[in-house]
Amino acid sequence: MPLNSVNTNVGAMVALQSLNRTGEELSATQKRISTGFRVADAKDDGAAFAVAERIRGAVAATTSANEQLGGVKGLLDVSNAALENVSTTLQKLQAVTVKLADGTITAEQRGQYQSQIGELAKNIKSFITDASYNGLNILNDPATVAIQVVTNGTGTYYNFNGYKALTNIYNSVSAASSWTRGDASSALTSTGAVGKAITNTLTQLNNFGSYSNYIDSQINYNKSILDAQQSGLGALIDTDMAKESARLQALQIRQQLGTQALGIANQAPQSLTSLFR
């Protein structure tokens, strides 16, 4: 091919190809800077994008599981608060029952103590029936006492039981307002109404406390998993902004030089006109 041709400008073709490549690289760099991602879509790196999408799904699932665990924690906290109030009230009820068991009190005093103990029993029932969280009460003799809680994004479950507190605690002392001296004496034994109610309350407080500790531990563990997932995702697809900034400046200079080189190459054929003067 002739070196001096007005039909084919090799220099311009080379300069244009170089300028186009620089433009493509510049466009890719600007995309990485504007999105913050080295891999923003499948066109950037199909394999890395596929892995990133899977990790994003895992992050969403773990986040959702932790949100649900937060609700369970609230439910257990409310139930524990109710049982703690029941326990405190049972202590007061026990003290009044001791007075009822005393044979030296008058009939009027007995009536007053029976009235007091009846109100305390009503308080116990109220604490139990009011222990609702998000419409769920696991103390108010639930029809289904088995609770199944999702603990992570892979669908693993933790199971614990609700508690029939009306049956096992309140019913023991529900008739306390009519207790005689003999009833009061029997109620104070370890297997009596008050002793049984106190034992059941403390046992369930221990159980719910264990459930709550597990939920707290699982929430913290999930947070650690989320941190690791986010860190791995960032290492896979995030842009090194300092590196891209330096590259952007270099490409902008290359683009300017390429434009100038193309301009010079386009002017080369014009020098051939001097041959015909």
TrEMBL record:
The keyword Secreted applies. It holds the Pfam family Flagellin_C. It is found in: Secreted; Bacterial flagellum. Keywords: Bacterial flagellum, Cell projection, Cilium, Flagellum, Secreted. Residues 192-276 form the Flagellin C-terminal domain. Residues 6-141 form the Flagellin N-terminal domain. The keyword Ribonucleoprotein does not apply. Belongs to the bacterial flagellin family. Flagellin is the subunit protein which polymerizes to form the filaments of bacterial flagella. This is Flagellin. It comes from Paeniroseomonas aquatica.
